[in-house]
Amino acid sequence: MTRSQVFFGLIPPRQLSYPSHVDRRRATRVQKTMDNDSQKSRHGDNQSRRHISRFHSGFFFRHPLMLKFNYYWRVEPGIQYYCDVDYDPFVFMEENKKVYSFSVSLMEYQSTIPSLWKTVQGFVRANPDLLAANSSIDFLLKDPSQGIESDYNLCHFWSNFEVGDMRFWRSTTYAKFFAHLDRAGGIYYERWAEGPIHSIAAALFLRREQIHQWDDIGYFQTPFSHCPSDYERFHSNGKCFCDPFENFDQDPYSCAPLWWELDRSVTSHSSLIAGLNHSLYTNINQFIM
């Protein structure tokens, strides 16, 4: 509960239904097929999940209730925060010129996004001037030496805990990007979710220093968790109550080691990087090759 003012609003029905350019019969057939292969396509038959993914990808930041705000913090039902948050994340974002932030990063199911990267490549080839200088594109690539022509390594930021600046999502660049993806129909014909869409946009169109990982905020949503590993800073003083060994960052399916490899300037990660076996980064590359 909170003593702060709370607002409630309705999502326009047109933003939670099929857009006119999507063939509903084709979408229904795809969903039935993905349901039959559910081990490889989580939520493959879930129509409402596709609608909400499209809303999160293209519309939430333009909802009338959101227009008077610059920053948002996505909070999902049933989550747990394991650490005391003794500062204002919005102030941190503004003072440090951060635009997008996350806690957990992981690989997406290939079967849910088979044509997403080709669609992204088409957009970038047509709009190369929109790529940010010092972007995080390498976070997305199997072979960074190939640039945008590389295959996608499936890494993305888990979007159910993200703090962001909605001015980025409202920008002309992101509007063009989302319109391009939306026209392709992959949200419905496959199962493109807002996590990969947000992550790819942030990695391509933001400078690397504009993206932040909340290393100091322990977080859990089934089935993954993030727990700070520095005992002296976070556990001996009672600030966090999680087990640092129960940490998805150390899982072979995590993309956190790859992010740290690309983002060594973020000092809050230094102790965790030093404590991890470098084979984690090797595991990531072995998995995606």
From TrEMBL:
GO terms for cellular component: Golgi apparatus; membrane. Residues 29-48 are annotated as: Disordered. The keyword Translocase does not apply. Residues 32-48 have a biased composition (Basic and acidic residues). The active site is at 162 (nucleophile). One of its GO terms (molecular function) is alpha-1,2-mannosyltransferase activity. Keywords: Glycosyltransferase, Transferase. One of its GO terms (biological process) is protein N-linked glycosylation. This is Alpha 1,2-mannosyltransferase 2.4.1, variant 2. It comes from Puccinia graminis f. sp. tritici. The gene is KRE2_5.
